[in-house]
Amino acid sequence: MIASRGGRSARYLVLGVAAVLFLVPFYLLLRGALSTEQQLVGIDHWTWFPTHPQWSNLGDTFHNSTVPLGRSMLNSLVIAVTQTVLVLVISGMAGYGLARSTVRYANAVFYLIVATLLIPAAVTFVPSFVMVSSLGWVSTLRGLIIPGLFQSLATFLFRQYFLGFPKELEEAARIDGAGPMRTFLAIVVPNSWGFTAAIATITFIGSWNAFLWPLVIGQDQSAWTVQVSLSTYITAQSVDLSGMFTAALVSMVPLLLMFLFLQRWIVAGVEQTGINE
Amino acid sequence: MAEPAVTGAVPSTVGPSAARPASPRRKWTDSPHLWFWVFVGPFVAGLLVFIVIPILWSVWLSFYDARNTVTPTHFVGFENYSRMLGDSAFRSSLVTFVLFAAFIVPTTFVLSLGLAVLVNGVKRGKAFFRSVFFLPTACSYVVAAMIWRHSLFGGTAAGMVNTVMGWLGAAPIAWLSVVHPPWYWLVLVTVRLWLQVGFFMVLFLAALQRVPQQLYEAAALDGATGWKAFRYITFPQLRATSTAVLMLLLVNAFQAFDEFYNVLSTTGGYPPYARPPLVYLFNIALGNGQDFGDGSAGAVILTLIIAIFALLQGRLTGIGRRDTA
């Protein structure tokens, strides 16, 4: 496209302003985390920077008697890692089967999956809660992990991806006598790490940030996830603002680190999730 | 499917492969049905147990008087349904979410597409802008709601937006507790825009990069640049992506819970306004009453509404047709 000089600077101006607006919330998070409680609530005017950054807030936030941040971060980590690994296995295999199988009803099964995709999981939280509570899984890791393992969206995306996977590679293995499982494990999986990493990232972020289901199932404090812990700051009678922001900042560290190191990869992954085909 | 390839390859090569079909290793793979279920079975089984059965169970519960119990005995027919439909709070929650979806879906669409076009058009700093807009994807609704509620739109003069407005001579606004005008909408809508625009921008960026450059060159010869080039080349080329983005946005809008709950709830309560259906159902089914009958009836009504929306949208955008390809 041919853009005039004026058009180009206007474009940078708009992008620059937007970039600042997008960064403001991160600045506010950092500002809140490094402030004393007084600076946040005790005065009636806004301060742009905490005069004495409270680095000790970071350690203190793990010693809060009402919000078990350390425990809930561990819970979240166990849940997110387990869900990510198992979703990749379950949806990856299902996606491959749906893309390659010659059985006639494969398409019917696929449409059933698409149909459940259209019913948001959140609408089913009442029935799912009924189900999980009658299994006795309330406030257990099982109850937090297992119902989230069957992600229609991940299966859908894997199927779309495998439809575009070059068949020639697999045929070579077939000629050598490998069955579908060996072909899958020896040829398809090793050549699909980029896409798998993309789904892994999206699943991990979704799992770490999930709120409604952990809120419903994690009723005992020992089963709280990090998001549930954080939300108790909000609904508490007296809000400990600096503690709240510090905990929020700490809760983002795993994802921010992931973004820092995997940024290029994550973006490339989102780009090729197959939604654009 | 692999069979013809194997037999086709046999004549051109030498004998040994002819012995392969008889080898004992090929057992379960002989049956396409068996291998299909080995791969797809675990997922489908889980889907049935944790999605389909709960939905059916919910339909069953919705016809019973089920307070504090999931094994009710008292059949009440459509009583729960008529109570929910007659409940003005439930109806207003439906209105809330229709309004919310009607606003957030097109706004996110336009903003993410606009940012993608701008970022795609710059030579320097492309990676920087993309990263900045994408970064909020790492943030949760809970954390974002905290920032919005306590720092950005803090209701006192010490809130950031109120401070900036103060420079312009405007009086501070109690963003979350004023109902007329409904300022809380501005808070709720900006949280979601900030969190999701970057993700969809990346999807659009990827699609923009695939638009063949020759199309623009040809159009430029015909005098179509700028807006015209966007209108007649870019936008039609983005059709598949746009369809997918619209569907994901709609599904996301229906899920609205996290930011509403965390922006507006108070100790043991939630104000009577800006209550989307999931917040309302959450209170009915899992609040003090534990009314699974009413909660299930509400969930069924909501599911039906969503199904109708999804079908309508599928009709309009033709998403079902594409999948058969």
TrEMBL record, chain A:
Entry keyword set: Cell membrane, Membrane, Sugar transport, Transmembrane, Transmembrane helix, Transport
GO cellular component terms attached to this protein's record: plasma membrane
One GO biological process term: transmembrane transport
PROSITE patterns associated with the record: ABC_TM1 (PS50928)
Positions of transmembrane segments: 12-30, 73-96, 108-132, 144-162, 183-205, 241-262
Membrane topology listed for this record: Multi-pass membrane protein
Source organism, top-level taxon: Bacteria
Family: Belongs to the binding-protein-dependent transport system permease family.
CDD domains: TM_PBP2
Membrane as UniProt keyword: yes
Name of this protein: Multiple sugar transport system permease protein
Tagged with keyword Transmembrane helix: yes
Cellular compartment(s): Cell membrane
Residue ranges annotated for the ABC transmembrane type-1 domain, each copy included: 73-262
SUPFAM superfamilies per the UniProt record, alphabetical: MetI-like
TrEMBL record, chain B:
GO biological process, alphabetically ordered: transmembrane transport
Pfam families per record: BPD_transp_1
ABC transmembrane type-1 domain boundaries: 94-313
This protein's UniProt keywords: Cell membrane, Membrane, Sugar transport, Transmembrane, Transmembrane helix, Transport
Segments passing through the bilayer: 34-57, 94-121, 127-148, 160-178, 184-208, 295-312
Keyword Chaperone: no
InterPro entries, per the entry: ABC_transporter_permease, MetI-like, MetI-like_sf
Gene3D superfamilies: MetI-like
GO cellular component, one term: plasma membrane
Location(s) in or outside the cell: Cell membrane
Membrane topology reported for the UniProt record: Multi-pass membrane protein
Disordered as annotated region, ranges: 1-25
Family as reported in the entry's similarity comment: Belongs to the binding-protein-dependent transport system permease family.
Protein name: Multiple sugar transport system permease protein
Organism: Flexivirga oryzae
